[in-house]
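Final report, closing paragraph on structural work. Over the funding period we assembled a curated collection of sequence-structure pairs, and we close with a single example.
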Amino acid sequence: MGSNYRWEGFVKDHCTPFLAAFPDRKGSHHYCRIGDGNYAAVSGWPSMTMTHQGPYLGVAPMGRALTLRVIDFYRCADGKIAENWVLLDYMHLMGQMGLDLIAHSNAMSGN
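Its predicted structure, as stored:
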């Protein structure tokens, strides 16, 4: 997804298209929680379940049930979250949507 600056960028670039494509998503199945000092991570496999109901990243809706694997890393400072890095397993998500990202990348590069 890239990176976003501030909440407004996150909403525009990620939340709006994601929620349009997966309006029934259910999440927060973060069963794994670890921390050390000012750093923490939370994850679950899957973290989210949803139905592909709208176009997403160029893939037409399929009406299929999908899962999304997510892990969030946090850095805290002065008792507040200072940074949040989120890894979304798009290889797995796109595979469920019928797109092999490795094969697609190779085809795009002529390999």
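The first strand starts at residue 32 and ends at 36. The mean pLDDT is 89. We thank the funder for supporting this effort.
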